[in-house]
Known about the structure:
By secondary structure, the chain is α+β, with helices and mostly antiparallel strands. 33% of the residues lie in helices and 28% in strands.
Amino acid sequence: MAGPAFRAAAVRVRVPATSANLGPGFDAFGLALGLYDDIVVRVADSGLSVDIAGEGAETLARDERHLVVRSMRAAFDRLGGQPRGLEVVCANRIPHGRGLGSSSAAICAGVVAARAVTIGGPAALDDAALLALASELEGHPDNVAACLAGGFTIAWTDEDAARAVRLDPAAEVVPMVFIPSTEVLTETARGLLPKTVPLADAAANAGRSALLVEALTRRPELLLPATEDRLHQDYRASAMPDSAALVGALRAEGVPAVISGAGPTVLALTDEAGADKLLHFAGPSFAAHRLQLDRDGARVLPLDG
Length: 305
């Protein structure tokens, strides 16, 4: 049986950073942010070439171990076969190990690029299958769902396959991220979580999660109570004390603030009037960035765009 055919032209893919959990929506909620990684992929006659600029340029592997390459290989397997060679160029802007979905971005960039360079790829690997594969590679669907779809996503696993719905965040929501210089590995942060939690805490998070859907999409004035969490942030505070303290300081001033994903970045959800007023909270320990909400998710773009 013949394998797939591939496009001769290079393909450019852009993927957004993401923030998972958003407080109470542990392992379910994701929000796409206007901070991007780009990759350019071309099918070559032979071999593998990987070039990296920006985040991770000094530390990431430039061979088959690279996460973008591994993700492309997995997608090509689903598409029917591997190309003879690959040239991959990565321009990374999403910080690594900060809770902004850098690994999900790499995975999504890889699977989207593999589909794009394969003739008939979108028909052979539709959006639902793409989400399922990306979630399988990442191990959970919250970040990859937001990265692929953009906007605000609610993800879950049903019959061993990832599912997600996408909602539009309210236009007036402005995300601010406070990024520390130190990393926290997701595995470290997950290792601090208990096996069981009090029923009252689980019930409180269920209610806050439901409220957050309304607050983030239609009534941002409810974001402060809607982002309260009892399931994970307090347990992880010992691994990121400065971030936990910043969340507390922001919330004490009435600012909806949470740990972004597994941390240690802090995400604040504010508005146009309040965004610049939060810059002084950064202090010497954090770099503060005002971002846009990403509403498009992973995209194939013109090479000269």
